[in-house]
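Hi W.,

Here's what went into the run:
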Amino acid sequence: MSNKPYKGFEPNWLRTPAPEGSYRSIFRWGDPNFFKFPKESLYKMMKETFKMTDDDFKEYTDDIGFDQVDLSDHPSNIDPKHIKALKKIVGDDFVTTEDYPRLAVAYGCTGYDLLRLRHKQVENVPDVVVYPDTTEQVEQIVEYAVKNAIPIYVYGGGSSVTRGMEAMKGGITLDMRKRFNKVISFNEIDQTITVQAGMSGPKLEQTLNDAPILFGAKRAYTCGHFPQSFEYSSVGGWTVTRGAGQNSSYYGTIADIVLSQKYATPIGKIVTSHYPREATGPNLNQIMMGSEGTFGILTEVTLRVFRYMPENRKRFSYMFKNWETAMDAAREMMQCEAGYSSVFRLSDPEETNLMLRLYNVDDTPIAPMLDKFGYKDMERCMFLGFTDGEKGFSKNVAKNIAKIALKHGAMPMTGFVTKSWEKGRFNDPYLRDSLMDFSIITDTLECTVNWSNMAQVHRDVRKVCHALPNTVVTTHMSHCYPQGANLYFIFITKMNDADEFKRYHTTILDAIQKSGAAISHHHGIGKMFAPWLEGYIGEKEYGVFKVLKNYFDPDYLMNPGGTIGLDLLPEEKKFLNERKDYR
Amino acid sequence: MSNKPYKGFEPNWLRTPAPEGSYRSIFRWGDPNFFKFPKESLYKMMKETFKMTDDDFKEYTDDIGFDQVDLSDHPSNIDPKHIKALKKIVGDDFVTTEDYPRLAVAYGCTGYDLLRLRHKQVENVPDVVVYPDTTEQVEQIVEYAVKNAIPIYVYGGGSSVTRGMEAMKGGITLDMRKRFNKVISFNEIDQTITVQAGMSGPKLEQTLNDAPILFGAKRAYTCGHFPQSFEYSSVGGWTVTRGAGQNSSYYGTIADIVLSQKYATPIGKIVTSHYPREATGPNLNQIMMGSEGTFGILTEVTLRVFRYMPENRKRFSYMFKNWETAMDAAREMMQCEAGYSSVFRLSDPEETNLMLRLYNVDDTPIAPMLDKFGYKDMERCMFLGFTDGEKGFSKNVAKNIAKIALKHGAMPMTGFVTKSWEKGRFNDPYLRDSLMDFSIITDTLECTVNWSNMAQVHRDVRKVCHALPNTVVTTHMSHCYPQGANLYFIFITKMNDADEFKRYHTTILDAIQKSGAAISHHHGIGKMFAPWLEGYIGEKEYGVFKVLKNYFDPDYLMNPGGTIGLDLLPEEKKFLNERKDYR
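Here's what came out:
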């Protein structure tokens, strides 16, 4: 996925940075001066798939969002006395009712969000944005908001794909990016760091890498948590949604990495235990994680940290003959008790087809060899990853992966493919923006499966996707465990209407729910997946979430408007699959 | 700890099996024909420590409990219509109001229980004992009991040290041992087994070892969970108390091993997820574990299972010069990312002194060498364990442990010590019975610490113990993690009165609570630790447990009478330590 020159016609890819204050500066991903376009072979593939011509890529489908944000149709509607009170808590400069900062915290990154923003369909914005500095300030804001019945939302990194932070009821949004992103303490004895919830992924990782300089630590550390959204994600977002990074097979998901949490809730401060294990009743850490802002505002998080030892990393990649053999091999790798690799990613045949182009393998001598040795297009499955940990551990994991892959008839593909993947791992969202200018939209859905229902879920969900018009759907398995794995579906389609996208998205979510898989492995629920949650969990089981909500936030002021389904009406819920007994 | 003949005077150790139907058959540990006595050097040490003479060991302090159980002072007090109804559910032969089976399910294994039983102090017994066969029967019993306001208790393996199953309010006790101990399904693809909650440790392990014969499996498996109480513990007990086995540093505690649970609660059946990770709100598995029977009756549990590969096990033992160096080494072993050993046990100087005798090291040429090389008595610390897992993994773990131990000045002690420990690991409770006949009582208390407060907790708790009369207190670290470990205190004292024991026990629990450690790493809370729980968790945080209780069991019929503090009066609670912010 290089920005190499095309031999033939090259689409009119947008190369101009979005103006400050523009809509585009909100909906485009990240760094204003960074762009990413598909290479020529991929562009050709898309034209074929979506029956488009070069002409379709001469003009942008729509307005590209260079206008200045204007919310005159959505004025801030909050009593000035509240503004005054909030300014008293955080300081005059850290409360705003201006248009741009209000819109900037209103949307996340699902296709539905991007399409709405591209079309200036502004539905829900907060009345006021507040930039807190300290935990005490957040506690005071929550107390004030509850006393005055004002809804509160939180904007962390901004990369939610579930409409997690959308301010459905207006009110206050706390934008954590500006100030609530500091290190509170670093404890090298316990290998932990305590940070404010707005701490960003890159700042956290840099801090840990620099621990010897910053804290006089004996060595450098890593956070071990690298979701694709890493660059625009926050520790708070990771935690309340139960996120997982791409290296989770070794480091664990955030639910494993978090040691302790502190919340500002309507009933007061809640502090969870900071011990690795205990037998003292239900686990409060695991109750608060997954609450997605509905029980209170996460203020501080203590994370386990890991030793930074990139010198021990072993990269690998293999090609399997087909999905069945590849699944068997992956399962054996996770069950053989030789340790887990850090990144562990197995693509199905359709994704493999795409990835070979994306990772430029089609330009190498490897490509013709694959066919020659019977690894056939649309059957073969690419597997890649790398190990982490102490030198001997890392080596042993890689050695066992090699042994099992070869035993299952795989062909080694060298570290080249893995390196290509690493290059693109955090910047594919830039590519997404480029394509959307021409109505090609990419989005993802994911779920958890056990090994024993993986083949069926993969088949059922793909079948539904392929029945949809203009759809490429690729799947990979990642975040693996001895008892199952995450299945991650990426779909690419031609579409430019937000409501059409929502219907499309709903069809796939219905399919995941009907297949019996866990409705989310790591994206969380937010407002977009909420209608399915009670059906997935079970009514009596879901009742637990409701009593917890009523305990912490009886007035429904914390992230209200459907988050994790707590204030949905019965008719807004979907009950598609009665959970069967596991056997 | 052999049964070798003594050279000098040998105490009148009881060698007669307890008669059927006797009190002793209830309070003694396990196999009626197995006995265990201290060897001569240990006997001498006890005489010295407790200022006793051979004369004190000629006669038993008290009645040894050979009488037939007689509960005529505690008649079953339940309406015959309920007996009829219960018989209709489980069959005529599986409901009893007889004395012996009622007392047999009334007590666990804390010193307080054993002393009460030795003195025939019967306080709380159920009115009726029921032996369910199926999940549906348990569901019907719960439904019936709730309709008729009858309290329900569960007796699993019987080895609670927290008065977990004591029927404070009478009513029904479900004795799971007789029939509710069957395998429901075995899934080799996912490496899971689903069992009824009454499944015993040894039966489960045997089943998994025999998987090729019983289920046509490709290989043998292990449950990975081996608490000291293994032989008289149940899967249900492990789960609801959040237990940990001695091999938990590698296999995880039961909270890691459990994949899914099913409960019969007053509001109906509750089934938790069976996926390894998910981002679908608060984690219901982690809410139900730790409920200790207060939310409902655990009926079925799905456990992750592991490959049975004893051929890969590497045993190790080392002697460190002192506790500080040993703690540093242990921390490095847990943080170096080379994988964790399965058993990981580090004794403090006082325990090392005792263990060298217990493991017969004092009879070997190793003993004089220790002194010679500067590993001084009451300073030196013994460290032992073994690794598990795939061959290369296991080898790498052992290699790194060796490297770190030697770097920290430890002396290798061969596999001999570890093998001695393994011999005794499940049968020390027999020794306890022998000593109690002469008023010497042993019991344990344990907690979780972070590495950064380990030294302080160890010092504070030992200080309080040593201020108690006639007390030997030994400590080991086990169940270790990168962020901390379990500290396990074993105390031996001369005492024969249940109330005196309770006061003594309370003093140590107060000390643990004041030290700031987690009040239990794996014994759970039950009724005995309950007064400290709310103080440990925090009042607002503990409120979560109460709303959960009110949701599942609004009439307080499930294990009522103080379990995890839910129905304690405010004046029965202790608030000794305000939780400080973790830094």
